[in-house]
Design brief:
Elements: E1 2-5, E2 9-12, H1 21-27, E3 31-34, E4 40-41, E5 43-47, E6 56-64, E7 69-77, E8 88-90, E9 94-97, H2 98-103, H3 106-112, E10 116-119, E11 122-123, H4 126-129, H5 135-142, E12 148-156, E13 163-172
Parallel strand pairs: 2-7, 9-13
Antiparallel strand pairs: 1-3, 3-4, 5-6, 6-7, 8-10, 10-11, 12-13
């Protein structure tokens, strides 16, 4: 008898082409053991047929010669992944109107930029995701008086484990007046 374990993981889309089975085993921290004596068992097959160099989530299946298998989710992102390969922020530059800048909630602003936060390889809830947008950066969008670009930094964590994504919010004039 044997058991096999592996974790969901994140990979940058420019790293997908030509990735080896060994690299995927390492990214997923996949391992198989004998349940009788805990001896390591070789992972003999990695099914990565679904994996594509496009943003999205794909199933990867690791299996042993006896057919013991486990499937995990590989999330492909367009962007840089922090060194620990566990945490990542993905977001796009956006263009919004002055009215939207003044009325959007934090959640709406993050949704507009398709902002996603992955912690430990998994996407997190909105309550945690909202923490990546600082009150200062949110206020600089919300209190914009004129059309123009606002540069914001989406940040998660601190120190060596932190990840940051720079985003430009372009605000266009839709004729709304700004009340002082």
């Amino acid at each position: 008898k044997e058991s096999i374990t592996a974790n969901n993981f994140i990979i940058a889309k420019d790293k997908v082409a030509g990735i080896s089975d060994a690299e995927l085993i390492m990214l997923a921290k996949a391992e198989a053991i004998s349940t009788t004596d805990s001896a390591p068992v070789a992972i003999t097959n990695v099914d990565k047929t679904q994996l594509q160099a496009e943003e999205g989530t794909y199933d990867i299946t690791f299996s042993t010669a006896k057919g013991t298998s486990v499937s995990v989710k590989a999330t492909v992102i367009d962007g840089v992944i922090s060194e620990d390969k566990e945490n990542a922020i993905v977001a796009n530059n956006i263009t919004i109107t002055l009215t939207e800048a003044h009325t959007f909630t934090k959640t709406e602003l993050l949704d507009e930029m398709w902002a996603k936060l992955y912690v430990g390889g998994s996407e997190v809830t909105d309550a945690i995701r909202k923490m990546i947008l600082s009150a200062t950066d949110y206020a600089s969008v919300k209190n914009a008086k004129t059309a123009g670009n606002v540069n914001i930094s989406l940040t998660y964590g601190s120190g060596s484990g932190s990840v940051t994504k720079e985003v430009v919010v372009t605000i266009t004039d839709d004729g709304s007046s700004v009340s002082e």
